[in-house]
Amino acid sequence: MKSVDFSNIKITGGFWKERQDLIRNVTVNAVYDRFYDTGRIDAFKFDKDSEIKPHIFWDSDVAKWMEGVAYLLVEKREPHLEKIVEGLIDLIEKNQEECGYFNIFFTVVEPQNRFTNRDCHELYCAGHLMEASVAYYQATGKRRFLDLMCKYADYIEKRFKIDRDTAFVTPGHQEIELALVKMYEVTKEKRYLELSKFFVDERGKRKEFRYDWCKESYHQSHIPVREQSEAVGHAVRATYLYCAMADLALRYGDKELKSACERIFDDIVNHKMYITGGIGSSRAGEAFTIPYDLPNLIAYTESCAAIGLVLFCHRMLLLTNDVKYSHTIERALYNGFLSSFSLDGKSFFYCNPLEVLPSLHKRDEELTEKTINMPITQRVEVFECSCCPPNIVRFVPSIGNYLYTYDQNSIYVHQFTESTAQIDGVTIEQKTSYPQSGKISIKVTGKDTTLYVRIPEFIDTYEGKTENGYAIFNVKNGETIELNFDMQPRLIEANPLVTFDSGKVAIMRGPVVYCLEGVDNGPNLRDIRIDKNGKFTEKIDTDLGVLALECKAYRRKPTKALYAPMSNERIEITAKLIPYYAFANRGESEMQVWSLVE
Amino acid sequence: MKSVDFSNIKITGGFWKERQDLIRNVTVNAVYDRFYDTGRIDAFKFDKDSEIKPHIFWDSDVAKWMEGVAYLLVEKREPHLEKIVEGLIDLIEKNQEECGYFNIFFTVVEPQNRFTNRDCHELYCAGHLMEASVAYYQATGKRRFLDLMCKYADYIEKRFKIDRDTAFVTPGHQEIELALVKMYEVTKEKRYLELSKFFVDERGKRKEFRYDWCKESYHQSHIPVREQSEAVGHAVRATYLYCAMADLALRYGDKELKSACERIFDDIVNHKMYITGGIGSSRAGEAFTIPYDLPNLIAYTESCAAIGLVLFCHRMLLLTNDVKYSHTIERALYNGFLSSFSLDGKSFFYCNPLEVLPSLHKRDEELTEKTINMPITQRVEVFECSCCPPNIVRFVPSIGNYLYTYDQNSIYVHQFTESTAQIDGVTIEQKTSYPQSGKISIKVTGKDTTLYVRIPEFIDTYEGKTENGYAIFNVKNGETIELNFDMQPRLIEANPLVTFDSGKVAIMRGPVVYCLEGVDNGPNLRDIRIDKNGKFTEKIDTDLGVLALECKAYRRKPTKALYAPMSNERIEITAKLIPYYAFANRGESEMQVWSLVE
Q1: I need a surface site. Which of A56, A153, A243, A436 has the fewest CB within 10 A?
Q2: Contacts of A283 in chain B (CB under 8 A)
Q3: Is the predicted pLDDT of residue B369 greater than 80, yes or no?
Q4: B282/A368 CB distance under 8 A
């Protein structure tokens, strides 16, 4: 299957247009301002006398922001942003060493320690700079940044692959592997693809540096990658590695790599993924844990990991065209990813918990040693480790990437959003207010085309011609097809082995996971039992600008005794649910995705 | 109300006789052996060249064991134990300083730091030695140990109350306050009572030493004790303080102290006590937290805190004769306390969780930084901080203390167990296999007596003459009365505000809390739903020697999908429940007290 780059797709309205506008008008500037305030931008000046010590991953924070700017420029030039990026490239050019090396921390703070500490994000920063340079070249046609990064890539190849004189062989935090594939795609320099393959192939073949608080599995180095079957360790490192594995599987026709990717993906979606598409359930190591270990209150589910999962799924889609990868992209997009930024576009979650109990945060104020480490309850504008905000900035403008794949006369429609796409001489126009409505019209202009439209995961029965989960339409040039997916809210339960969700249901409407918030439903959400008949009324919440749901539910009567014989007495209430992605936009409040049912 | 000391009561059979025999035949020796192995016994030799460095609280560990031996000697002399105790007293006599000071750590390791660090358990150790000396004197009539401890108490009085030249005013770990009351009771030296009052009065009046990771509330020093209304901080420190407050309230007729104790007790039983009578829900600070914060999986619920709660309740009973204190004693006795030692009497829990999920322990093996700190899943023979095992040794032989109070011609029967008691010229004989059966016969010999028999908390309606929760019987000399309490198992729910128990029930039969164990019910107990009609079959489990229960219950069908539309399909199963106190006696296994109900 071939991919359709977002540069060939214009999101013209609806759900994602709103978000793209928000990123362009608010978020890209808000993230820049916070990066400027915190010294991340000025760090590129390499001022050794600066009072602010650059962090080992600051290069990557800014690089991801630059990549985001590049993606915004594809559709519409933004001179003030382009000027900032050019200024940063000036500094990169100025401060890059003759040999090609470029890293702020390992030039300004610890120049003596270059390529000695596997876990210091050195190659991770390099990877993000490379991705940014590719994006900027593709958006603007300007090669300077790309050339600088080619020089850096050449130097890395020399040191790691040719001279082999570095203190470690493979990066502690994967990222450069997938970046090198992009460098190859844009330069056609096979060496970059080979270097990516080198890093992927060598991983897990020897004991390299490891933290004293975790095992090699933390950075997926416990066994060679082709032997891996389980998603383990740091979830972002993992997904970035899996992306590169899928990239290489595709380009080398490497069946072992492909099948490792398939096994790992299945492990994630069958055992280790929240209903929101969030992954990495443990704060310890920001990591995957054991199957079915999906605690809601302490869900780690880093925003970057949700993005990483989408990136991985997209590559698997290109490799297999299996509808399940687009199902998972949709799940992550509308839930675990979307929750990561506020509706005003200015603040961010690093962790995206599925339950918030502010009283437990209050409990821990009395003791600095926390009972349980819980995610913060409100989004903030910047983090010390602020990888997520710029990842959002680069992700939303490139959302078009996930809409289509194609092959000869067949076009596959994976995601639904109002848009116009140019694909292989064909124009595809989607008209829809999805996910608010399940109605989608798709017009094909240019030539007769076979359309394969993904039937969403929440559709149990589809009437019409289907194949492998796609609805098939032979569409004449100029013809429009209509679909209307049932968006009736549904009560969903987790596998019985997910102990943290036992006895509970989540409510989904189409691909959107809903939640209860204290601000709508009062305190003590855990005592609310959703009526098991699951009849919902839809209502626009004008305050949040989202489609809310109301349903019958029950609470127990307040009592004084701490323990008493079971009572069947109930107070009937109307529970209000809002999309999970919109939680925590009205002040600190209880929240839960999983509720009792009765 | 007057108390009836256990020395006037002989437990003649039944439930507690078994436990008393176990302590006498097994536990007292097992604890001694582990204390010997770990150097706690030899530490009394004050060998400065020893390779084993004594810990600051080792004096107290051994003192509690000595107190336990003393209680065993009341009923039956045990020459080998008495010899060990005499040997220890020899060492105490030999190593006590001329001034009266005695502390292993602050003589052998840090003699320069005496009375400088509020938190080093120095006065806590002194208190336990005093309690042991009182017990040994009362059991044997031998005064030597008591005299040594009087000398020490005199020295403490001089330094802390008269000269006031110590670096802190009140102990960081309360204990000496209640010990000094015992010293007063046996010596009639008012100075000891006054010193206890001094320590209690001065607490919370100034900023003293505090840990940097908690507030003054950790050792109940945030405000003066008479102003306190909430149970806060370290649960063992708290209950030992509350004991002394109640002791002093009784002896001084101090209404402010009494009412503080009443407020605190109500706070505990209405907001902060597990259904097992366990208290102190947080590992952080081994402490009470906010109301209704009663997590099951990470319940801290130290064995010593359950004992501390009983000791506090008993003093409140003497102060008020309110039946609620005996209710709570019964709850703690049969559950949160009893779970602390294995059925073979050789191993112990420090924490007594209400849920065990071994898979989550397995999860954390991959990472040395734990996701959540959970209690151990199996009892062990000794802890580094081994306060609980000797506390059990001293508690079980003195269980008779909680059976009766009396006043003029009235005798109050608080707990039910086969026994013969001598009370104020009356002999009371209880015949019962309680709590297995609810049948109790009580024979009164000596004179006509009004018996007030506590109606247990689990009895909703009692037919007969009652007053303030007691059934009243005017019993003639030689007459026997019969009671038959309904022991039908019941489904109990927690207050709706206890978020961790929402949607769940616990099963209690009489005063005994039951639990599900994986060894009986297979894995994934959280998916088991107890049938809401609550019909139970009783069956003796001969392996454990306990009364087990069976009931109808349901599981969901195993499925592959991680998420799916809610299904009402169920597999009917027979769930087996065993008394909570008997859990973890058949290897590591899941366990839960609170189960779903349907």
Answers
A1: A436
A2: 371
A3: no
A4: no
pTM here is 0.95
Q: Do A566 and B370 touch (CB under 8 A)?
A: no
- Nearest CA to B387 out of B276, B307, B486 is that of B307
Which of B240, B259, B239 is CA-nearest to residue B249? B259
State residue A373's pLDDT score: 76
Cβ neighbours of B529 in A, within 8 Å = 503
State the pLDDT confidence band at B41, using cuts at 50, 70 and 90: very high
What mean pLDDT comes out for the span B125-129?
A: 98
Task: State how far the alpha carbon of A44 is from the alpha carbons of A111, A143, A170, B431, in Å.
Answer: 15, 20, 26, 86
Q: Please report, in angstroms and rounded to a whole number, the separation of the first and last CA atoms in chain B.
A: 46
Q: What is the domain class of A7-395 according to CATH? A: mainly alpha
Cα B278-B281-B282 angle, rounded to 5 deg: 145
What the block records as the tokens of A141 is 């046609």
- The conformation of residue B557, written as its DSSP 8-state character, comes to P
Hey, is A506 helix, strand or coil? Answer: strand
- Return the closest-CA partner of residue A173 out of A231, A126, A205: A126
B457: nearest CA partner in chain A: A564
What are the structure tokens assigned to A205, written together? 């073949």
Whether B361 contacts B373, CB under 8 Å: no
CA–CA distances in Å: residue B277 to residues B288, B309, B322, B329, B579? 13, 8, 18, 8, 14
pLDDT at B583: 98
Residue range B75-84, pLDDT digits in tens: 999 999 999 9
pLDDT of residue A369: 62
Q: Which of A200, A324, A195 is nearest to A270 (CA)?
A: A324
State both tokens at B164: 């006031």
Cβ(A470)–Cβ(A412) below 8 Å: yes
Q: What is the token pair recorded at B438?
A: 């609810």
CB contact under 8 A, A284 and B370: yes
**First-to-final CA distance of chain A:** 46
Mean pLDDT of the region B103-116: 96
Model pLDDT for residues B190-248, shown as the tens digit of each residue: 999 999 999 999 999 988 765 666 788 889 999 999 999 999 999 999 999 999 999 99
Alpha-carbon distance A556 to A528, whole Å?
8
Distance CA B20, CA B40 (A): 24
Q: What is the DSSP letter of A55?
A: P
Interface of B with A in 131-150 (CB under 8 A): none
Among B145, B147, B29, residue whose Cα is nearest residue B87: B145
Residues of B in contact with A215 (CB under 8 A): 366-367
Q: How many residues does chain B have?
A: 598
Q: What is the pLDDT of residues A521-575, one digit of tens each?
A: 999 999 999 999 999 999 999 999 999 999 999 999 999 999 999 999 999 999 9
Compare CB distances from B496 to A283, A295, A556 and report the shortest one's residue: A556
> Rounded to an integer, what distance in angstroms lies between the CA atom of residue A83 and that of residue A94?
16
Residue B391 φ then ψ, to 5°: -65, -35
Q: CA of B569, closest CA in chain A: separation in Å?
A: 12
- Asked if A370 reaches chain B (Cβ–Cβ under 8 Å), the answer is yes
B113 touches chain A (CB under 8 A): no
Average pLDDT over residues A128-147: 98
The residues, ordered by sequence, that sit 6+ positions from B48 with a Cβ below 8 Å of its Cβ are: B108
Mean of pLDDT values over A212-223 = 84
- State the complex-level ipTM: 0.96
Report CB contact under 8 Å: A566, B371.
Answer: no
Cβ of A169: how many Cβ atoms within 10 Å? 17
* A387 and A36 Cβ atoms separated by less than 8 Å: no
In whole angstroms, give the CA distance from residue B215 to residue B209: 10
